[in-house]
# Entry
Amino acid sequence: MKDRIKKYIDYKGVSAGELAVILDVERSNISHVLNGRNMPGAAFIEKLLLKFPDLDARWLLTGDGEMLVDTEIYNPISRHEEMPVTGIKTLIKEKEVSITQDKKLERIVLLYSDGSFDDYKK
# Structure
């Protein structure tokens, strides 16, 4: 797994020190993982996947598949055209109108092209 983590952070252009800051872990933790001294724990993997939503979890854990998540699967809007964030509010309002009484909107996650995201709960 350490080689896949190295490959991904190289792809993102993130240094080990920057990764430690992003994940809010000790630099030694990153060093031990990248040098193969320690296997990354569940908390480390969870932080990595939450901070980098474009990283494919199956690839990270097993090496199967592709390194990056196919955003077309998770973002049907991008199949048609890029929508500015201001357009999202309109989309949400339209969606709320069509939601039936037995279904209520609980959460919206916006994934940005730079790998960051915003998570909104009603």
